[in-house]
């Protein structure tokens, strides 16, 4: 199946709109960097390096991109600044393809024995619970039987918000209220998922990076009780990051990946920020696939991350 065939016109329009602020910010800086220049020389590359770093692409990824463009300049001898946009698009798409796993084909999940269990982690305020709700809605729309577990029991709003999402998208939520044992909620969610032949069980977890030891212990406990019913679980430990925080999202990703095993990433709130470049850096630097991105308020604005389409939208004139 080709990339374009499943990436619908609606999704592409939503992605384009969601990245509008990031794109405008980037091109304003890029145009200032190349004004009065006709060829891509050392000065232009220095300016471009600054543009990428200040667009939250991150230092390491920026260095890789500049190195790749320098190679092209050396090989082609003469590169016009008018070609820079296309060159950037090609080199960044190439970099992400080399450093990351394959793109998802829509909201698909692998076939597993029993329910597919997703454990969701992330600090408060990143859009964790909203992402879970939207994810549940997308799975439900594909005809999947979904169960949610409200195991972020240290924050009343998180439990209430997940219950509201469950009602909104008509998905059952396992909850024991606030200040209860998160592992007990996870236990019930896994048990019910197994008994009811659910396709997907999504478990919300504590939204704080208190100390690494506490976080590790808490998540280990949750994993252990879930495995009583579904031995291979969790199949995915998803870290939700707020794209609008730019470099802070990098720091959170580093902290969480040190504290626990993270197998996928979701980057939210890209529509309200000019820091969309952070997705490029995060996708490159953490050898963990970015699975989903949030580019708007609607359920359909939670999209599977397609590297080719993302770069295309980001660099579209």
Automatic annotation (TrEMBL):
A Gene Ontology BP annotation from the UniProt entry: SRP-dependent cotranslational protein targeting to membrane
Annotated localization: Cell membrane; Cytoplasm
Keywords from the UniProt entry: Cell membrane, Cytoplasm, GTP-binding, Hydrolase, Membrane, Nucleotide-binding, Receptor
Catalytic activity from the UniProt record: GTP + H2O = GDP + phosphate + H(+)
Listed EC numbers: 3.6.5.4
Membrane topology category: Peripheral membrane protein
Main location: membrane
InterPro entries in UniProt: AAA+_ATPase (IPR003593), P-loop_NTPase (IPR027417), Signal_recog_particl_SRP54_hlx (IPR013822), SR_rcpt_FtsY (IPR004390), SRP/SRP_N (IPR036225), SRP54_GTPase_dom (IPR000897), SRP54_N_sf (IPR042101)
Residues that coordinate or bind GTP: 122-129, 204-208, 268-271
SRP54-type proteins GTP-binding domain: residues covered: 289-302
Transmembrane parts of this sequence: none
One MF term in the entry's GO annotations: signal recognition particle binding
Matches recorded under HAMAP family: FtsY
Function: Involved in targeting and insertion of nascent membrane proteins into the cytoplasmic membrane. Acts as a receptor for the complex formed by the signal recognition particle (SRP) and the ribosome-nascent chain (RNC).
Subunit structure: Part of the signal recognition particle protein translocation system, which is composed of SRP and FtsY.
Family note: Belongs to the GTP-binding SRP family. FtsY subfamily.
Name listed for the protein in its UniProt record: Signal recognition particle receptor FtsY
Organism: Ekhidna lutea
Gene name, Swiss-Prot/TrEMBL: ftsY
